[in-house]
Design a protein that fits this description.
The chain has 198 residues and is an all-beta fold. It contains no helices and 17 strands. It has a 4-stranded mixed sheet, with no helix packed on it. A hairpin with a 4-residue loop joins strand 14 and strand 15. The termini are far apart. The N terminus is likely disordered.
């Protein structure tokens, strides 16, 4: 008997491919500021806090601990006020994003006595004679083996004299003689500074 072979054509069966999509949740926001802050007593400050990650905008709040007397934290993350009593203060500050994710950073605030330039006047210098006078200050924040950093802000010293970073005014004055005025800055290790004109 003859054998007949016939091809049976089948229609392709459509199918639905379901792809699961997951929305990746960003990491919680984190405060990026240095957590050690020095402030001179009786100084008005405005220190913005910064954060990254999460979903902005952020809300900041005091989670625990104590801010220095006179210092306040706004919801937008600004530490503002005029601090009163010097000493060390510890506070945990929380940052929260718009979807409720949050993290906390532990801060240490060191309130130091105000920076003061003690030197109030300078000895006269004579043309051609070596000169040396050291500016002195007090207060502020200094770490072990460090002192204040001095710099010239405006004006000019007599030709031949320089202000070194350690506060020494040194050199040998050169002509022309005259009256010179200038302003110096004294800065401590916490980036607090004070000016004085001579």
């Amino acid at each position: 008997m003859p054998f007949y072979f016939s091809q049976i054509l089948k229609r392709p069966v459509p199918f639905l491919f379901l792809a699961a999509c997951w929305a990746q949740t960003p990491d919680p926001p984190r405060i990026t500021n240095s957590t050690f802050i020095t402030i001179a007593q009786a100084t008005s400050v405005s220190i913005p806090l910064n954060a990254n990650g999460g979903t902005p905008p952020y809300i900041y709040s005091l989670q625990s601990g104590t801010l220095p007397t006179g210092l306040f934290l706004t919801q937008s993350g600004v530490l503002t006020g005029a601090v009163g009593v010097f000493g060390d203060y510890f506070a945990n500050i929380k940052v929260t994003d718009t979807v409720g994710q949050s993290s906390t950073a532990s801060f240490q605030f060191r309130v130091v006595q105000p920076l003061t330039i003690i030197t109030s006047s300078l000895a006269n210098a004579r043309t051609g004679s070596p000169y040396l006078q050291t500016l002195t200050g007090s207060g502020g924040f200094t770490v072990l083996f460090s002192s204040y950093t001095w710099s010239l802000v405006s004006g000019a010293l007599p030709i031949g004299l320089v202000l070194n970073s350690n506060g020494e005014i040194a050199g040998t004055p050169q002509p022309p003689p005259g009256i010179y005025t200038f302003t110096v800055r004294m800065a401590d290790s916490g980036n607090n500074s004070v000016l004085r004109a001579f």
